[in-house]
Structure formats: C-alpha cells, structure tokens
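INFO  loader      accepted 1 record
INFO  loader      residues=233
INFO  predictor   begin
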Amino acid sequence: MPEFYAPDFDVSRPELPPDESKHAVRVLRLSEGDQVEVVNGRGQRFQCIISTADPKGTTLEVQDTFEEAPRAITFHLAIAPTKNRDRIEWLVEKAVELGVERITLLEGDHSERAKVNFDRLERIMVSAMKQSKRSWLPELKGLIKTSSFWPNVQEEEKYIAHCEKRDKVSIQSITGNSCVIAIGPEGDFSSSEIELAQSHGWMGLDLGDMRLRTETAGLLSCSVLALKSMELR
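INFO  predictor   done
INFO  writer      dumping tokens
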C-alpha cells in the first residue's frame, strides 16, 4: 500500500500536501478509490481511501487510525558529522529505522564537516520512516558546538563515548528510560571536550575494544538501545 507523509494531517479535513499529492497522482498514477496510508510523524498512522485524486491536493476518506506507542527507552543520538557525506546520511537513515527520538549534529574541536544539507537529511529521514513503517519522525538539530551542547541536555542519563583511558561504563549497563549518547569525529573528542562534558554530569561510555568509525559507533549505540527497548516492552 502506498505511504505518504503529512505532518499537518487533519482527520476532519483529510488531504495530502501538494508534494505528496503530485507524487501520488502524477508518478504513482493513483486514482479515486485506491487505498493509501498516511503517517504524520507524531505517532499516528492512517489507512485511507482516495476520494479525489488531484495533484494539487488529493482528498481522502479515513478508514482506520493506528497509534504507535513511544519506545520504552527514549534515545537521543548526538554525533559529529563525518567528512564523507554518504556515511552520515547512511547513519541518519539507520537511526530512524531503529527508532531514535532525536538526532543532534555536533561541531567540536576535531570536526571534519562544518556544513550539512539539512533539507536532504530530512528527506532521508522521512523516507526511512516510511520504509520502516514507523510513525515517529525524529527531531533533527545542529550544528551545535559541543561547549553549548553539554550543559543543555535534558535526558536522565548522559554518555560520551571516547577513546581516552578514563573511567567509563559499558553500553550494556544503561538502564534509564531516557538517555543521550554523544559520538565524536574520527579524531575523537578532545581532552578538554571530555573534561567539560564530565563537569556537566556526562559519563564516559565504553563501546568495546574495537576501534570504530564514527558512523559504526553511532549504529552500534542505536542498535543496543533498540534491543534494550524491546526487552522492556
């Protein structure tokens, strides 16, 4: 069944936005009576039938509504964008598929990328949400300097993954319902960044004995938290 994204979907006036309407009618050749699914990115999914197929605004009839419950663990991934654009785009896609609630792109002492195409990333996120049949679209923020980010995080548990020989906890030991994990660039977070983070209550995080690329460390974090969330259902 074709799926469309409508962030402002109103069940009292069910209609696809212009870009999705154009895709439905001109590309997919959908017409009156065809079944479609609409997701609003805020936990709701709607099964609908097309009432009027119009590339400027396709109207719908809502047949059923489904609510996706929030995950048992709310996970915020904060990560420094990779120099290679494809890698960070791949990670963002996988993070959405694995159910991350928030993604923040960090700018730090060893950052490899100072500019990011947020419009492109948001399109990738919407596509990943549709593909994975999720109903929540993560919040995307950035680029935020690490010095501004450390003191302004609201999650219960705050972890900074780094390679320095300091006290760390294993990712397996995370037990809170709300956490944020910060992943640095290929050159790691600087010592001053780690010290500043710890002064604001961040704990060092051990991701294992392997030396991981930035996007791999991000994927590992997302995967472990997704599994933990499934165990707590």
